[in-house]
Design goal:
Elements lengths: L8 H18 L6 H19 L4 H8 L7 H8 L1 E5 L12 E8 L2 E8 L5 H6 L7 H17 L3 E7 L6 H5 L2 H14 L4 E10 H5 L6 E5 L3 E3 L3 H8 L6 H8 L3 H6 L5 E3 L10 H17 L6 H13 L7
Parallel strand pairs: 3-4, 4-5, 5-6, 5-7, 6-8
Antiparallel strand pairs: 1-2, 2-3
Helix pairs in contact: 1-2, 6-8, 10-11
Amino acid sequence: MQTYLDFEKTIAELESRIRDMKVLESGDEINIAEEVSRLEAKLDKLLRSTYSKLTSWQKIKVARHPDRPHLSDYIKNLFTDFMPLSGDRGFSDDHAIIGGIGRFKGQTVMVVGHEKGNDTESRIKHNFGMARPEGFRKAIRLFHLADQLKMPIITFVDTAGAYPGIGAEERGQAEAIARSTEACLAVKVPLISIIVGEGGSGGAVALAVGNKVLMMEHAVYSVISPEGCASILWRTNEKAEDAANALKVTAQDLHKLEVIDEVIPEPIGGAHRDHDQTMETVGRAIDNALSEFSMISAEKIKELRSKKFLNMGNIGL
């Protein structure tokens, strides 16, 4: 069953009409093929119009859509021979971050990313993609392993933020995030980061310090969630929409600010409407990004990544 967002009411009604008419058509009671075709053309136009002018707050809702592809979907569709690697070798295995070795178009790569889960049971298991310190320490271990084995690293970012619980803080959440960010900067292999949904706070940055930072068209990336920002500045979540506009969270805003390198287009109506097309587009973007570093030395790859982030904030100066 399709899940609709609050601004998609007209789209939902139109799709419902199309479904009903197709049921009638299948019974051969009346030929309504032309009417269905007309409504489908109207739907396509409506989707294009609606999604071409989304506000920042609406994009946040799309980025959080429960039917958007998650890390497990990308692993299944883009990588072969994937072998998960578990645990931080210190405390436990955090299911909010999944990592392992796989093949991308025949090339061995390390894949690391946030997993939110697809239903209630899996969302609880993966803690809604909010990693604890052991999750970031697992990522660090895999980054170092990839560096030793000279494997490119591909990270998928999709989290509301690092888990803020007492236990996580007691086990050194801030230090783990900082170490993970440091590990991203230190590796001498290409690191491609893709923000596929939410890129929230340090929990996102810990996996997103890449040579190339790609971002899905309707994904969001910010230092704090709009709700968190509103609760700090205005002491109420009711100002979350205002916070979203002020934070410049969209891929388009961040590309202009040179925080990210490329915006990956999504299917009309968002990635949740066409997983197959999304996989094809993301796969092509990864392939192009990796090819840029195929002839560059290890030291140069590390140097370029460091310069990239050191230069941020100098726009217009």
